[in-house]
Amino acid sequence: MRFAQTITIFIFSLTACLLSSDMTTGSLSFHQLTSPIVTVFVLSWLTSLLPQIPRKITQIIVGEAVILLCVADCYCYMNFGSAISPQLLSVVLNTDAREAGEFISSFIGIGIFKQWRMTLLIILFFAFPIAFIPKIEGLFSKRLILNKYFKITASIIIILSIILEIKPTRDFLKIFSSDYKIQDVESQIFRQENTKNTSIHRVIFAFRANKLTERDLEEIKQCTIAANVDSCSHLSPHIVLVIGESYNKHHSSLYGYPLETTPLQRKRLEDGGLFLFNDVVTHWNITSNAFIEIFSRPLFPILFRRAGYHVTFFSNQFVFKRFGKKKANISGNHFLSNKALSDSIFDYRNSRTRHYDMELIKEFARYKSETVSEPYTFDIIHLIGQHFEYELRYPKNETYFTESEYINRQLNDEERQFVTHYDNATLYNDKVLDSVIRMFEQEEAVVIFISDHGEEVYDDEHVKGRLFQRPTYSIAHQEYEIPMWIWCSEKYKLAHNEIVEQIKKSLDKPFITDDISQLFYYLAGINCRWYNDRNNILSIDYQCRPRIINGGVNYDNLH
User: Fold this and answer.
1) What is the C-alpha separation between 103 and 47, in angstroms, rounded?
2) CA-to-CA distance for 559 and 556, rounded, in angstroms?
């Protein structure tokens, strides 16, 4: 009976895993077959080692748990467009009893049986315990399990599957290593690597990711709350950081793009107020990872607050929503979704996103006009920029480029439309950025613009979006190279001629965004243990460290 029960849990669990393995195309790759086979075999074998009575009970519980996980996985995909993920688990962990009750009453009902996968999984869930009834179990073993051809075939398949799954299993187990970081979590989420091909793997990964997020958040809290400044001269009274989104610098006419996508910025460049940096890269082509590097550790805004600056954060992507509870939020960016930490580093932040970036800038302008004027301010503005889908990033009455502009490029109609939307979004972004500058023209102010990462727009790689793989030179060219400029008001240039000259001498220096906080400390005149003159791009002592992108690739070694 031991063998019969083990095969029973194996077959039922494997069937459930296969039903929830690929819900996008309905087909299974070779790896999506071998991964469930090995995973379920290991679970079945481990439970078979128990004595008779606890073995049967344990196998029923484990089998039902596996099937139930597959039901939940399938349900999430069918209703929310995503299988079980760290983000979805984060939402569940941040849901209270009332919200859970409302969810069950709203989303779970007879309608779930309209989905054939769900129907089969639910049938498996109720049929599995019945298979352990002695008479049915005996019939099952005689007809199938004791058949020698079945045993031989099953053994060969399992052995081959184990051999093929050695490397994926080793890759999956890396998430439990001590040096596995939250950036690695985000990278795996976006890469959708073939190490999570069963609901079991996805749930384990989701729990591990959330635990790592909590650990990372606690580390950030500790080093940030303890941070302080030694002194501050308030060298630059008003500093503004604008962070763009998905901005391919090679679609900016500032960097030689043939279409005039940045006329307002170009005019400011020609007038001598805007200074363009030419060799800047970001660590990641993932927004949340890029933000971790930009904000550094400790989170640099807290040092500005403690130096006497009024610090604000206006984002068109990261707002609190429901994440003010105990569990860390892995959705978007964990440290910006923690209210206690946010309250410590910002004097004010906006509470909701806007459809277009110009609406966010108008909200920012209202806040500035209605707030008592502060002598020293540091404002951070985070745009939605050219985030996919591009046609949603600019009003239709702001359309300037048409598909006829790209008639000489080797693009089909759909691709041509795609690029047209992107360039129109870039042109609209030019107007948004100029409106920020106009707000500070009468102040002694400096505005810095960078993007979180770039984007593929059918250029070097004939693809769209981003490629979450080890970057080649062409991928790095489009996705990791980013625009950066500094604009100085006339009052600022008169008061800080030395800084302006330093900026002019630094435009061609290689730079990576995790050192951006060093630039801010210098501009503010903040002295603290975290400032290093060698990491400040404006310093004559600046030394560019190896520019590591995507967690392990030296950008400057790519050719």
Assistant:
1) 34
2) 8
